[in-house]
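queue> holo job accepted (flavin-adenine dinucleotide)
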Amino acid sequence: MERLSIICNHFEDNDSLESNEVAANSNNNNINNNNNNGLATLNQNSLNNLIQINSKINLDSEKIEKITKILFDHPDKEWTAARNRLIEVLKDPIFECKPYASFHEQRELAQKRVAHLASIPGGPILKVGEIVSNYKKFSMFQSTLVYCDMSMAVKSSVHWGLFGASVCCLGSEKHEKYYDDIDTCKMSGCFALTELAHGSNVKGVETIAEYDNKTQEFVIHTPSDTAQKIWIGNAATYGCFATVFANLISNGENYGLHPFLVQIRDTTTLKPLAGITTADNGPKIGLNGVDNGRLWFNKVRIPRDNLLNKFGDIDANGVYSTPIKNPSVRFNSMLESLIGGRITVANMANSAAKMGLYIALHYAFSRRQFGPSNGKEVLLIDYITHQRRLFPQLAEVYINQVGINYVINKFQNRTEKDARDVFLLACGFKAATTWNRSKTLQLCRECCGGQGMAASNKIGILRADTDVDLTYEGDNTVLMQAVAKALLQEFKSYFTGTKRITGMLSYTYSKGHIGIFLRNKNFFTKRLHTESHLLDPDVLLDAFIYREFKLLRNLIKTLRAKVKNEKMTGLQAWNSSLDLVLQLANAYIERVSIEKFLEEVQKSPEDIKPILTSLCILYELTKIENDLGWFLSNKYFAPVKGQAIGNTINKVCGALKDHAIPLVKAFDIPSQFLTAPIIGDWVSHFSNPNNC
Ligand SMILES: Cc1cc2nc3c(=O)[nH]c(=O)nc-3n(C[C@H](O)[C@H](O)[C@H](O)COP(=O)(O)OP(=O)(O)OC[C@H]3O[C@@H](n4cnc5c(N)ncnc54)[C@H](O)[C@@H]3O)c2cc1C
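queue> job finished
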């Protein structure tokens, strides 16, 4: 809180800022052209003609391929070969869609499917070591599995992405001997962190691993029922090994949470080993192919070598050593090295949203309801309500994909210096993408009417099976707090000259925006004055930068006032400002998403640029419209602009209509998974009484 007061003092000195803001109804048409962020812009002429330009473009297969390459982040040959091989493997009958499988059948099927993936001739497509060396491939692997079966995808993610990655990233050379057995699922694994009493606040985990000097073993113990491990994927039935997070105690001292490799079941009989109690989490509201379970440990002994010892180790005499002295920083570093799981969840969520949009849009182009009595009924897609529900979601899936690709690349090439940055971007994009996935699938379900309820049409099942992505790998609301906290710390470091904690703000801000914002009255004169501005992604981007700065400033001022005037503790002030905290984190992620997408647009081939620009504009306008109350109450523009925004969204939607099907084709969803009857000739499908 002391840090915050430094920042807030600074603001007090600059409080005249408020009066510097341009009046909402200013007629000032003078766009500050010097304030071009260097991002993709179309010339003014093109902007005005955007809609006509869009209508002249024919998104043929060649252009679709170019868009696909962008979505796949310009894949190399190796990546493409691995994806093609996976798609071939997924043609095996075992992967055929089984929408009506019972609870037990779903469990068995998901297990068999993962086992099949692990034992294909020619060796596994993915090796556990590649989660570190070729993360892009792992993310592709996971996001492709989503199209087939979410339960299989999650089981695979738990086994390779969490269990495998924990052995790889938290262990050392001596643990490499396990890699082959993890690749082939001989060692099928779980990741056991969450406990009954502690989910989001993992630092409260109670499980103990006490070192016994005499036998050189750790004794893993569940001290109370609140310490039972819960929701652990693969733990109810099939998992035989687990990375168990427990408090390492040696010579009477508690060194905090560490990961331990523990065998929990016999690999042949699947019976729990002595000292281990397992229980099933039972039927869930979705994702029932995953056997989530609970675990208790009753003084279970494991060898000293089973401590995954990258971040902390014990010698034979129980003397503890660590490369990171601060226990909190140490634990954060452990979680940061596993952050890949969070990015994968985002990528998987985007796949689910893509599938929903592919189905709902195809149906919308073939289904008719109402119309003139003497003519054809109206296509669903011709209703503006349909366009308004589906096209902004389509745009957001595109924008999020480019954002996720950016984080994947940053993660794969991360250095120690930017590890924290990657961690926070992963938190933000995980939350933003899964929230969007949830909204998209709900809208797609509704847009298909009654057909949206048929399991064979997939959207409803995907919606139920993916719902947990809002919660696992970190609850979204909690993750967004970490993002906002880092923004405050980063902002503070600009003024105190302290070492930068992250580089989160730096992309835009390093261009001098912070300084300009604080000094220059006219920085934000680049407002939305004419309708053509509403079609300029750069002008729109400024609205996002403005909102983020203002929210950041408001949050700092609010926290300071609560601490100083209302005598709250830092934690109380923070908790009572969580609405602002979430708004700020959200504003940050939206701004970064736009910047990253516009960078991609700028690099893209000329013949697809206008379409991608339209998607960006639609995303920007929709986000502004969603937060219109904020923009109006902060006098960013006059109320009349609110109406203009709505009209422009309608126009951009209209301009995108002819491109909607090519744009979902560009997702390149493997054809064997496009089985929803409403994608094709649904009248003939339902003409057969045996079909459903
Ligand atoms: C299907 C499934 C699979 C899972 N798989 C695994 C696994 O394999 N391994 C594993 O270790 N765990 C697993 N989990 C656990 C998962 O990671 C946790 O459920 C998650 O971290 C949330 O913890 P919680 O359930 O205790 O919720 P809580 O932390 O109790 O949160 C409940 C609510 O309170 C809110 N809340 C909490 N703290 C705050 C705060 N500070 N400010 C504002 N709001 C707050 C949250 O936003 C949320 O809405 C799984 C869970 C599920 C449901």
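queue> The pocket of flavin-adenine dinucleotide is lined by residues 158, 191-194, 199-200, 231-233, 284, 287, 292, 468, 471-472, 474-475, 477-478, 578 (CB under 6 Å).
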